[in-house]
Amino acid sequence: MNQQTQDQQNIQSMEQAQPLWKMILTQFSEHKMAVAGVVIILFFILMALFADLISYASGLHPHRQNVSGRYLLPFTYSEVGSSEKETAVENWINQNTEVAAQLQAEIVGKNLLSVSEEDALYELALMPKEEGQEILKQIETVPSSFNQMLSDFKKFHPFGTDEVGRDVFIRLIYGARVSIGVGILSTVVAALIGLLIGSLAGFYGGWIDSLLMRLTDALLSLPLIPVMIVIAAVDLQKVPVLADFVGSGYESIIKMVLIICLFSWMTVARLVRGSILSLKEREFILAARTLGCQDHTIIFRHLFPNVVGPMLVSLTLGVGSSIIFEAALSFLGLGIMPPMASWGNMLTNAQEVIYKNVWLTILPGLMILLTVVSFNFMGDGLQSAVDPKSIKR
Amino acid sequence: MATYILRRLIQTLGVVILLSYVCFYLMTLMPGDPVELMISSNPKITSEDVARLRSLYGLDQPAYKRYLNWVSQISSGDLGHSRTYRVPVSELLGPRLWNTFYLSMLALTFSILVALPIGVYTALNPGSRMDSIVSMLTFFGISMPSFLLALILIIIFAVQLNWLPAGGTETIGADNTGLAGILDRAKYLILPVLSLSLQSIGSFVRYARGSMLDVLRQDYVRTAKAKGLSYHVVIWKHAFRNALIPIITIIALSLSSVFSGALLTETVFAYQGVGKLVYDSIMGNDFNVAMVSFIISVSMVLLMNLIADILYGFVDPRISYQ
Questions:
Q1: Is there a single domain that holds both residue B118 and residue B249?
Q2: Strand pairing partners for A77?
Q3: DSSP secondary structure string, B111-139?
Q4: Is residue B322 part of a domain?
Q5: Is residue B203 part of a domain?
Q6: Which of A108, B26, B89, B237 lies 20 to 30 Å from B60, alpha-carbon distance?
Q7: Alpha carbon of residue A113 to chain centroid
Q8: Topology of A168-386 in CATH?
Q9: Are residues B256 and B158 in the same domain?
């Protein structure tokens, strides 16, 4: 009896009309790896968005170098050198003269340190962090800026430090911003270019079609990395429009996005042209035309929904390959310029640093691999979800 | 057929000429032309000297005029001198081209030899445990950037285990003749070939599996089975030979991506191929070398694509070149 009612319910739910997006969503969620990919991508994107917050909370800074804490392994502490400490204390005293005098007097007055008043703060900064904290506990009001400075002297590095002593963990997080950002931005722009060129070729046919498709084929047959290297080596100051961006700090990102766009619109263009050519001849378009639909209705209501699915798939897969291109060019030293971090340029010196600290290569590499695999799985899931032949109902 | 080949040849030539001009123009936009480099190496240089040097090198002329000069110089057989290596470009290029040829052909052969059996096996046993493991692995293979794999291989086999050299082309100063020479070269080729082939193995396995599955569903395979032919004859004579056609296209199309990857692999492994030459000469402002090596390597890829297209017609008699 129970079984029967369940069957009936199933049949009823099957008879109900489902909107297309719901069918796609159900189909997509059956692809476990694709769902895992989406979760990982969302996690990385959230991480990238809250990079400033994470930096503030952990007290780690992506550009802060520390000569005395280079090549540290994961889960280690770093301490800045004594001469840097002394300069920092001197600066602090010069900036907060009155507070410093008060603090110095209090330390010596309570006999916590047996040195002269002028040396008290220096002595405090130079001693190990725990002992210093003990002393500061006995003082009523410690200025927060002084505390901040002391805690900056000793840092915990969950992923270690790189060849100039920068924290790898926070650089990976800021790198996510650049790498994923460049990947998504360049793919979206490339998809728009591809959409434009593909639809122009598909709609008009004739010489426009053959010209655009020759161009597409020519670009597709080129070995991309050498060509990209030649373009990436160009000095932006000598290019008329782009020279304005030089010095804004974002010029290497703009250059990267432009180069990747230039060489990744072709797949979308071919896809759109192919779909349009085959759709133009289909009965439902003829029916729409016979019913007296206007051109824009046909394009937006009948052609577009049929193209958007495959385009979404190629967009998702495109993000993966854009991230690889960015990583490869930055790895060669032609992409994102330091001090800005990207997963690719964190690998720039990999050949030398693997002898000192392998984590400097493994961690950014793992991030690139995880992200690209996730985007590819997501694309795979979308592909089977939007393909009407594979929808199981 | 002849007109088809001729048309394609002319198209390829057109692309090469266009690309060489674009490349020449881009090189003028790169930081540091020859005279700027001389200025930085000689602080006593006067502005009259600079002007004289610029006109001597023809740098005061517009880009298209310099391009035409360069083309006429090239076509008279003079490829120019390398500034970094102090030898004629033609002398530099030959061995480099061979090195890259060995590397990419070995990688391509290796990936075909590995991928085809795996692809066919998984197609014959779809849905099996092996099939799902392989599809997972190919996914990672496709997503893995080749330079990353190269770095990981160096960490494992060169730094940790110390089995293979971390980079280079051959042992310097060693006797490089005969069998010993070949074995020495082979030692330096193992890691680059492995890292270069993984990505193509991934995509070849997927295409081989897909195309084989497709063919196995065809009517003629069912007919062959119904006739009572043995399993082997059906699989290898009827199915596999037809499944090869799309696989050959993919292999031919992957030539340019193998070459792209070769540049990165050569750079990571300091392997003296033409890809590393392109990269080094661009980074070192060695314009003569950069132009010639870039144009030659791109034309080789385009030519190989063309040859693959023509061979395709022999494999698949249904294709006619009109």
A1: yes
A2: A156
A3: HHHHHHHHHHHHHHSTTSHHHHHHHHHHH
A4: no
A5: yes
A6: B89
A7: 49
A8: MetI-like fold (1.10.3720)
A9: yes
Question: Which residue from B144, B145, B301 is facing A223, i.e. has the nearest CB?
Answer: B301
- Based on the fold, state whether residues B155 and B23 are members of the same structural domain: no
Same domain, B242 and B107: yes
Report how far residue B91's alpha carbon sits from residue A199's, in angstroms, rounded to the nearest whole number.
48
With an 8 Å Cβ cutoff, is A240 touching chain B? Answer: no
Establish if B161 touches chain A: CB-CB under 8 angstroms: no
Say if the Cβ atoms of B26 and A231 lie within 8 Å: yes
Residues of A in contact with B28 (CB under 8 A): 238
**pTM score, whole prediction:** 0.84
- Whether B293 is in a domain gets the answer yes
Subunit contact B143:A226, Cβ cutoff 8 A: no
Same domain, B287 and B149: yes
Cβ contact, residue pair A368, B297, below 8 Å: no
Across A177-184, average pLDDT: 92
First to last CA, chain B: 7
Q: Is residue B178, in this structure, part of any structural domain at all?
A: yes
Q: Domain check: are B129 and B55 in the same one?
A: no
**Which tokens sit at A258?**
């432009």
Using DSSP's 3-state secondary structure scheme, residue A136 falls into helix
**Residue A211 at interface with chain B, using a CB cutoff of 8 Å:** no
CATH code at position B255? 1.10.3720.10
Where among B23, B47, B75 does a domain terminate? B75
**A338 interfaces chain B, CB cutoff of 8 Å:** no
- Is the C-alpha dihedral spanning B205, B208, B214, B216 positive or negative? negative
Q: Which domain holds residue B218?
A: 93-315
Of A238, A327, A377, nearest to B145 by CB-CB distance is A327
Distance from CA of B113 to the nearest CA of A (A): 24
**C-alpha to C-alpha distances, B128 to A115, B117, B121, nearest whole angstrom:** 77, 16, 10
So what's the pLDDT on residue A45?
Answer: 93
**Does residue B71 sit in the same domain as residue B103?**
no
Local structure of residue B88 (DSSP, 8 states): B
Residue A2 has pLDDT above 70, yes or no: no
Q: Is B29 on the interface with A (CB under 8 A)?
A: yes
Question: Which residue in chain A is spatially nearest to B141 when comparing CA positions?
Answer: A373
Residue B159 at interface with chain A, using a CB cutoff of 8 Å: yes
> Which of B225 and A132 is assigned the larger pLDDT?
B225
Q: What is the pLDDT of residues A193-232, one digit of tens each?
A: 998 898 888 877 788 888 898 888 888 888 888 888 888 8
Q: Pick from A237, A354, A380: which is nearest to B154 by CB?
A: A354
User: What pLDDT, on the 0 to 100 scale, is given for residue A389?
Assistant: 63
Task: For residue A269, give the 3-state DSSP assignment.
Answer: helix
Of B289, B287, B285, the residue nearest B274 (C-alpha) = B289
DSSP annotation of B284 reads T
Say if residues B208 and B120 touch (Cβ distance below 8 Å).
yes
User: Left (φ > 0), alpha (ψ -120 to 50) or beta: where does A292 sit?
Assistant: left
| pLDDT in the model for residue A359 | 86
For B:117-146, CB contacts with A below 8 A are: 136, 139-140, 142-145
Query: DSSP string of B200-253?
Result: HHHHHHHHHHHHHHHHHTSHHHHHHHHTT--HHIIIIIIIIHHHHHHHHHHHHH
The number of distinct structural domains making up chain B is 2
Range with top average pLDDT, A66-70, A372-376, A385-389, B44-48:
A372-376
Give A294-340 pLDDT, tens digit per residue.
877 887 788 777 788 888 888 998 999 999 999 999 998 888 887 88
Rounded Cα distance between B260 and B104, Å, is 10
